[in-house]
Amino acid sequence: MSSGLLSPKWTMPLARAPASRLGGLFFKRTQTWNEAVPIRNAVEGRSEQLVAPEDANQWQQYWGESYGPELKQWMLAPVFDRLEAEGKIGDLIIDVGSGALPVTGILKPTPARKRICVDIASDNVASGDTLGVRLDAEKAGQLEDLSFRKVLLRACAFLEINPRTEIQTELADTMVFSEVLNYVDFRKVLQGFSNFLKPGGRMIVINLPFRGNRSLFSERGLKDNRQLYAFLEELDFETEFKAFPKKPPQEADESEEFIVLVAKKNSRTSISARPGIGPASTPP
């Protein structure tokens, strides 16, 4: 029997909930934080440059929206800098709901570093050390789903690993979830992606409950930061850092505040070896 990442027998525990959608947008080409982002027409006050095709999904009409990149940079740059100084970012970064301007673009490149930017509106472009993949984040880890299997194969090609023989699933050092958890079943998304994070790897979350386009929110989206703490603990993650940069000093309640959180995956949660893949797996 062949083994690898796509074996039909390879199963992952997933949070209960129907799949919905991923709150994030992706440019035709991955921008960097040093480049100008031509998002708005200053005269007409409307989006320019990118037009969704006729068969676009509901997210593509938002291509080019900035969604507060300066605020994200202000909040995350100190966190990234501290983790970099401590050698905790690592070489493989997954940016979930990467959007028009992936916030992981502020990380300094290294010879070994690669990024995979996951977004439901991605056009699947690879450029240098960055791969864009189009995926509904709620399908992460669902090997019965064809779109996820295709994404997994593209990621394997990008990382130059053989999916027919590779059984190590926990490859990522850092995962970033930037203002996406309101739009998805956050439990399903965090649990699905956690299966691809190394023991000792980190999830970095930046989110404000109820911020964004409420018409696109998931009923199972994050509505209270205490839900996030409890679920990460259930997944056996240790919260190493949390901050509320916009919380007034006199405010004691943090449940609905803008949060920046870093959580480390406990080594006891390791599930690195699972029976394998191969499109042509056969019974023994």
Task: Describe the protein.
The protein has helices at residues 69-85, 146-159, 186-194, 225-234; strands spanning 92-96, 114-119, 126-127, 130-134, 172-178, 197-207, 237-243, 259-265. With 284 residues, the protein is α/β, with parallel strands linked by helices. The chain has one domain (60-269): Vaccinia Virus protein VP39 (Rossmann fold, 3-Layer(aba) Sandwich), CATH 3.40.50.150. An 8-stranded mixed sheet has the order 3-4-2-1-5-6-8-7, with helices on both faces.
What's the quick description here?
With 284 residues, the protein is of the alpha/beta class. The chain has helices at 69-85, 146-159, 186-194, 225-234; strands spanning 92-96, 114-119, 126-127, 130-134, 172-178, 197-207, 237-243, 259-265.
Whole-number radius of gyration? Answer: 18 Å
- Overall form: globular
Nearest-integer average pLDDT: 78
Q: Which bin fits the share of residues in helices? A: 10-25%
Number of helices: 4
CATH superfamily: Vaccinia Virus protein VP39
Low-confidence segments: 8-56, 270-284
Could you say what the CATH architecture is?
3-Layer(aba) Sandwich
How many structural domains are formed by the residues?
1
CATH class: Alpha Beta
Q: Please indicate the percent range of residues in DSSP E strands (runs of 2 or more).
A: 15-25%
List keywords for this structure.
284 residues; alpha/beta; Rossmann fold; 8-stranded mixed beta sheet; 8 strands
Show the helix and strand layout:
Layout: H1 69-85, E1 92-96, E2 114-119, E3 126-127, E4 130-134, H2 146-159, E5 172-178, H3 186-194, E6 197-207, H4 225-234, E7 237-243, E8 259-265
Parallel strand pairs: 1-2, 1-5, 2-4, 5-6
Antiparallel strand pairs: 3-4, 6-8, 7-8
